[in-house]
Each structure stands twice: as C-alpha cells, then as structure tokens.
Design a protein that fits this description.
Elements (H helix, E strand, L loop, with lengths): L1 H12 L8 H45 L6 H15 L4 E10 L2 E10 L5 H19 L2 E9 L13
Parallel strand pairs: 2-3
Antiparallel strand pairs: 1-2
C-alpha cells in the first residue's frame, strides 16, 4: 500500500522536476519496491508463527485440563513428609499414587500396618493419615487400603503396575 502511494507521489512529481533528478527518483522507487516487497512476506511469516504458537499453547492447555496428571513435585514432597511421620508409628506404605483432574486432587495409598493391631487401631491410624494428607493438600480425595505388614501377599499386588 505504501509502495503504491509513494509511486503515485513520484509519478505526479515527475513533470515538476528536472530530468536530472529522474534517476534518483527511480532509485528511490526501486528501494521502496524491493524493501516493502521483502518486508511484507517476512511480517506475514512472523504473524503466522505467532498464530501457530498461540494455537498450540491453547490446545495444550485445553488437553491438559481434560487429562489426569500427577501432582506437582512440590506437593509430592509434602506428601512424603506426612508419610515419613507415619513410618515412625510402625506403618509402611506402597502403591502411592497421586493425580490431578482439572482442579480436583486425588491421592491413593496402601497402608501396611502390624498384623497384631486391631481393625479399630488400624482404622484410626488410617483416619489420622487421611486427615493429615487433607490438611496439606486441601480438599483432596484420599483413599487408603489397609494391609497387614507381615503378610507378604502385598508384594504380588496387581495394583502396583
């Protein structure tokens, strides 16, 4: 567009100018022609790259919102501190899983308790553990599965995969 405007200005000014200035105007016109003709596809390419980049990020964010993902490493380290606190109380853990779906967080674990504990005692420890996890994760869905630590069947647990 600017090229056409400049070309019209040069064409209209030709009769008023002397013939000695004509080669300079022609060189000016050629510079404009070359410069703007090269600049237009370069800018178009940059705009296209920006559109593609933005589109990829929008699609990625949309898909991430639909797909489950593990909790961030920082939150997993917080969970490990709670787990360490309960290991002191003769409780072990395995099949620890975390996931996040949209804004909801989920935590699942198998708790290994001494076999001589009563169901009542083990259940209270599990409730304490779930409460501590909810305290650090906020409104998370916590699922625990109790198993006796001295029963080695948990080694062959199909949920470990």
């Amino acid at each position: 567009m600017l090229y056409r405007w400049c070309a019209l200005c040069v064409d209209f000014s030709l009769p008023a100018r002397s013939p000695a200035n004509f080669p300079q105007q022609s060189t000016f016109l050629q510079l404009i022609r070359r410069g703007w003709l090269l600049l237009d596809p370069i800018i178009a390419l940059l705009v296209a790259i920006n559109i593609l980049w933005t589109g990829v990020h929008l699609v990625r964010r949309s898909v991430d919102g639909l797909m489950d993902a593990a909790l961030p490493k920082a939150e997993q380290k917080i969970i490990e501190t709670v787990v360490a606190k309960f290991r002191i109380r003769k409780v072990d853990f395995h099949a620890l899983r975390t996931r996040q779906a949209a804004s909801r967080r989920f935590f699942s674990v198998h708790m290994l308790v001494p076999g001589d504990w009563t169901v009542h005692d083990a259940h209270h420890i599990a409730e304490d553990f779930e409460g501590d996890i909810r305290a650090v994760l906020g409104d998370a869905v916590v699922s625990t599965h109790l198993e006796p630590i001295d029963d080695e069947i948990y080694i062959f647990d199909n949920n470990e995969k």
